[in-house]
Design goal:
The complex is a heterodimer of chains A (161) and B (158).
Chain A (H helix, E strand, L loop, with lengths): L2 H12 L3 E7 L2 E6 L4 H9 L7 E10 L5 E10 L4 E10 L4 E3 L8 H12 L2 E3 L38
Parallel strand pairs in A: 2-5, 6-7
Antiparallel strand pairs in A: 1-2, 3-4, 4-5
Chain B lengths: L10 H10 L4 E5 L3 H9 L22 E5 L7 H10 L5 E5 L1 H5 L20 E3 L6 H17 L11
Parallel strand pairs in B: 1-2, 2-3, 3-4
Helix pairs in contact in B: 1-5, 2-5
The chains are: A alpha/beta (161), B alpha/beta (158).
């Protein structure tokens, strides 16, 4: 499938879910509307696109002042040997998006990590609990608004430094 | 030596001599410094020459705690428990820049020096420290053990 034909097919399938299309070093990048993420990824997973693998799911916090979070999904097609990146912007105040659990099993831990680090709520996730930090940790440490040196010790520390 | 039929010493000195050459260590290894610890412990540098060759994988049988690598806040209670499980007399070596001061990880996750959790006797800096530095640190610890006040069971504790 050539790049133009692929873009045409994606536009025809997803319609208004796609806000923009870009190119990154030869790989296709789609900018999605956040409320359409799950349906769009479900469609891309099926034939003829066949993006069967969820390689990565992460998040970026841009601009502490404006506070916009950007979810990044990486898909990979085994049959066509191509990658696809999808991005969706969320407001920092109450970021929420539909979960991908049910489509890909590995989304469960990836989404838990993004929840832990950025505080994005994944609606419909069966077990949305912190993954890397511990019970009792307050805030989300990879947010730009988090004081980056603020440790949250689990036992009283000798504070002579 | 054939003419030597008796030897006088002080109990403190004898205890110190015995203790400094029979360090059973417990390696609390969390990061890449572990590679350098393995190098120091194995045949090339051979920590066993200094009597610290017996690695115990239970803190209850060890008297030297080697904290090798980064200790994040999540692991803090674990390190404290391991230290508390060790029997007296016990010593602690902070091995590598991360254990000494947090190293390059000046952030929310990492304890800025394990001396905020357990008392440390010897600090070995370096990222990672060369095995020679580890041996040097060990010799300094032995010197410290020899010259410190020995804590023995029937002495009255102040």
């Amino acid at each position: 499938m050539g790049q133009e034909i692929l873009i045409e097919a994606i536009r025809a399938k997803l319609g208004p879910a796609v806000e923009g299309i870009a190119d990154s070093y030869g790989d296709l990048v789609l900018i999605l509307r956040p409320e359409a993420v799950r349906s769009a990824l479900a469609a891309l997973r099926e034939m003829p696109f066949d993006y069967a693998v969820l390689l990565d799911l992460t998040c970026v916090d841009f601009a502490a002042g404006q506070g916009r979070l950007e979810l990044v999904y990486h898909l990979y097609s085994l049959s066509r040997n191509v990658r696809l990146r999808l991005k969706a912007s969320l407001p920092a105040a109450d970021p929420a998006v539909e979960t991908l659990v049910g489509l890909w099993k590995n989304a469960e831990w990836l989404e838990r990590e993004v929840f832990d680090m950025f505080g994005v709520r994944f609606e419909g996730h069966p077990y949305l609990r912190r993954l890397l930090t511990y019970e009792g940790f307050e805030g989300h440490p990879l947010r730009k608004t988090y004081p980056w040196r603020l440790g949250q010790p689990r036992l009283p520390l000798k504070d002579d430094v | 030596m054939s003419g030597l039929s008796f030897l006088t010493t002080r109990l403190e000195t004898a205890l110190g001599w015995g203790r400094k050459f029979s360090l059973f260590h417990y390696p609390f290894i969390t990061a890449c410094c572990g590679m350098e610890y393995m190098s120091a412990a194995c045949a090339h540098f051979d920590i066993d020459r200094f009597g610290a060759g017996l690695t115990r994988f239970s803190p209850r049988q060890a008297d030297l705690l080697l904290v090798v690598g980064t200790v994040p806040h999540k692991l803090g209670p674990v390190l404290r428990t391991v230290y508390d499980q060790m029997l007296e007399p016990k010593w602690v070596i902070a091995f590598g820049a991360c254990a000494v001061s947090g190293g390059i990880y000046q952030n929310y996750a990492v304890v800025q020096g394990i001396d905020r959790i357990v008392p440390v006797d010897i600090y070995i800096p370096g990222c990672p420290p060369r095995p020679e530095m580890v041996l040097d640190g060990l010799l300094k610890l032995q010197d410290k053990i020899q010259h410190q006040k020995q804590d023995w069971r029937w002495a009255r504790k102040s």
